Amino acid sequence: MKRFLGAVGAVILGMAALPALAGEIEIGNATLRPPVVAGGNGAAFFTITNHGPADRLIAAAATAARSVELHTHIRDGDVLRMRKVDAIAVPAQGQAELKPGGDHVMLFGLDPAATGPGAHVPLTLTFERAGDIQIEVPVAALPAAASGHHGAHGDQ
Amino acid sequence: MINNTVKAAGLIAVLAVLLILVAALNPGLSERISQGLALVTSPRLDTGFTLTDPTGKTVTDRDYRGRYMLVFFGYTFCPDVCPTTLTVLAGALDHLDAATAAKIVPVFVSLDPERDSPAVMGQYVAAFSPAIVGLTGSADAIAQVKKSYRVYSAKVEGSAPDLYTIDHSALLYLIGPDGRFRATIDPGHSAAGLAAELSRAVQ
């Protein structure tokens, strides 16, 4: 019985690592950039692959954040303006990439308890056609933690 | 008198032709000349500031004389542009040899004095690289440094009063060891690209 439960656990863990699939929409390469300062803002990035007709990501929700919005960046000379958008288009049989400096899911006021190292933040994505898709977004490490920096720079 | 003027004009003409020839034969040099001209024609910025470091101490630009300053403006609630740029910057410092990296002080200046206390700035920059200095100040001090560096920023209202974001200029400013403005650098680079640009600029 124990062995059986272990096997089930392994299957569930294995599934968590796979891209989220909801029929025609597939979410891959998901990552969440956590706030540095507790209670600050974070951003989620991922690739949406659409195996069906044109669709639109129209909302995102996360219980770990005070507010969630879909954002894009508008470059205006040297100034970058981050703006809320109503939807992010996903072309038929195509992809939409949410990446740094472009589109992202903005998570305002993230709960520090939900974004520690190694955590996964549950995020619900709502598509106009495909409906709701639940994903678990792994929290990325911040650069200093990732590179194992401790002393002054130039010590590599 | 006329003779001297003609001679001087002739000499200038000969020098100009020589310069054009040398530049034509040496594309690297002509590029450097045009870069030099670009720098000469860049706006003369007042690079001075009086701000507060993470320990609460007042610091000015003079405290960093003798090293290059790489100044970047942003805010700690910034979810994308600031962390992306600071990540590229931290990576660029790792790419540089220790001697070159030691010549540069990266300075991150808050455009959000309301939320960014000195302690918050210290915590923020430490997450990217221990080499980066995080500075903030009073609303007046920040307004002054914005004016000096000709930095644009504007609050954008969010869904709650404390959830505002800030539109802002996203350039890196390179200041020489003498405190003079040298160049602006577009941060849309890879860490390796920025490192190459910095090692050229600080030689």
Automatic annotation (TrEMBL), chain A:
Residues 1-22 form the signal peptide. Keywords: Signal. Pfam families: PCuAC (PF04314). The keyword Cell inner membrane does not apply. InterPro entries: LpqE-like, Lxx211020-like, PCuAC_sf. It comes from the Bacteria. SUPFAM superfamilies: DR1885-like metal-binding protein (SSF110087). Gene3D superfamilies: PCu(A)C copper chaperone (2.60.40.1890). Transmembrane segments: none annotated. This is Copper chaperone PCu(A)C. It comes from Magnetospirillum fulvum MGU-K5.
